């Protein structure tokens, strides 16, 4: 029962996180063509707040669940399972979209298709890469010191390898995945604070986050400045931004996780919990909503209230879409990487 409570809270956290993803995309894609074309969203305070921690938060949860569910699994078992759960939906969706394009335009480009598959749904790829690397390290040695050395080597190599094909994102996410693994191995979900002390800890987290957020600007986005130090004349600046991204992502994630833990009975938050149980499918479907917003809301003006309404509508529609598709035999696994009606400790991509 205690484990169920902990993982219900993770579902609530994921429910909040996926709405933040959708809201961020609504600010970017649902504020009109001029707003998007001039990339004004990069300077929006709410957008900056969301992007300072929302994807590291997802990755921390993924690493936590990986550590809790991977015990006893061989490296080959993990590769097979993660490829089916994470990459199969990527290739299926990209293949469907390519076929639609071929029917419409009458042409097929192999390189474009492969590029779409490799770069599409980048977060699923990030989880896959982090899972494969961490599983390899976990299986190759039982020595904690050796594992620390190997993970450190991977991080150091990330600074001197190219950022092509979204690897800047994968390398950034890898550290958050490791943080999640460490949290699981330290059993941080069992740590309890009583009385005023728990609110003091929250206040400290918020204070540190505010201090960090003051320095957030366009270069803070991984999409803008990248991760690698290769060929950079200002490599010290990039390295500092890399460290900054990790820190603010960790602190921001910690605040949200901690706040959910203070909420009380999880039954009060059943809607968020249900949304959180279907984040992989919602994440996939909401990407198509971004295209629709850019095509049909080109003349709209940016307003946060409008973006929130857009986000709520998209979240509800995508959730209902996932539930409808999930009643079709084999569709949940093929399209979303999840098994139908399985309510247990879930794996990293859900």
Q: Tell me the number of structural domains.
A: 1
In whole angstroms, the N-to-C terminal distance is 21 Å
What would you call the shape? globular
- Determine the mean pLDDT: 91
Percent of residues in beta strands: under 5%
SS-based class: mainly alpha
Q: Spans of 5+ residues with little confidence (pLDDT < 50)? A: 342-350
Extended strand count? 0
Instruction: Calculate Rg over CA atoms.
Output: 20 Å
Number of distinct helices: 16
The major β-sheet equals: none
Question: What are the secondary-structure elements, in order, as H or E?
Answer: HHHHHHHHHHHHHHHH
**Roughly how much helix do the residues carry, as a percent range?**
over 70%
Offer a few descriptive terms.
single chain; mainly alpha; 350 residues; disordered C terminus
Give a brief description:
This protein has helices at 2-29, 33-37, 45-51, 54-69, 75-105, 110-119, 122-140, 144-158, 167-185, 196-213, 222-225, 235-261, 270-276, 279-296, 304-325, 331-336.
What does this protein look like?
The chain is mainly α and 350 residues long. It has one domain. The radius of gyration is 20 Å and the shape is globular. The two termini are 21 Å apart. The C terminus is likely disordered.
Outline the secondary-structure elements.
Blueprint: H1 2-29, H2 33-37, H3 45-51, H4 54-69, H5 75-105, H6 110-119, H7 122-140, H8 144-158, H9 167-185, H10 196-213, H11 222-225, H12 235-261, H13 270-276, H14 279-296, H15 304-325, H16 331-336
């Amino acid at each position: 029962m205690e484990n169920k409570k902990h993982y219900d809270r993770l579902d609530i956290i994921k429910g909040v996180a996926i709405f933040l993803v959708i809201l961020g995309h609504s600010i970017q894609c649902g504020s009109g063509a001029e707003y998007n074309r001039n990339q004004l969203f990069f300077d929006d305070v709410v957008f900056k707040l969301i992007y300072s921690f929302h994807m590291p938060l997802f990755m921390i949860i993924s690493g936590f669940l990986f550590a809790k569910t991977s015990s006893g699994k061989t490296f080959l078992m993990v590769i097979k399972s993660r490829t089916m759960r994470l990459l199969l939906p990527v290739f299926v969706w990209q293949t469907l979209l390519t076929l639609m394009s071929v029917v419409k335009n009458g042409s097929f480009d192999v390189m474009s298709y492969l590029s779409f598959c490799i770069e599409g749904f980048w977060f699923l790829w990030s989880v896959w890469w982090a899972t494969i690397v961490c599983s390899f390290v976990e299986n190759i040695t039982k020595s904690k010191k050796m594992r620390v050395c190997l993970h450190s080597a991977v991080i150091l190599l990330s600074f001197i390898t190219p950022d092509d094909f979204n690897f800047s994102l994968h390398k950034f996410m890898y550290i958050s995945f490791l943080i999640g693994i460490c949290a699981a191995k330290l059993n941080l979900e069992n740590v309890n604070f009583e009385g005023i002390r728990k609110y003091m800890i929250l206040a400290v987290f918020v204070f540190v986050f505010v201090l960090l957020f003051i320095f957030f600007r366009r270069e803070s986005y991984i999409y803008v400045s990248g991760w690698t130090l290769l060929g950079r004349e200002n490599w010290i600046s990039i390295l500092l931004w890399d460290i900054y991204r990790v820190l603010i992502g960790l602190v921001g994630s910690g605040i949200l996780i901690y706040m959910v833990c203070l909420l009380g009975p999880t039954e009060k938050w059943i809607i968020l919990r249900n949304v959180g149980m279907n984040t992989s499918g919602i994440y996939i479907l909401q990407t198509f909503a971004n295209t629709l917003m850019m095509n049909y809301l080109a003349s709209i003006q940016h307003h946060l209230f409008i973006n929130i309404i857009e986000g709520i509508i998209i979240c509800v529609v995508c959730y209902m879409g996932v539930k409808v598709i999930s009643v079709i035999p084999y569709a949940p696994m093929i399209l979303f990487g999840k098994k139908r009606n399985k309510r247990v400790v879930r794996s990293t991509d859900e």
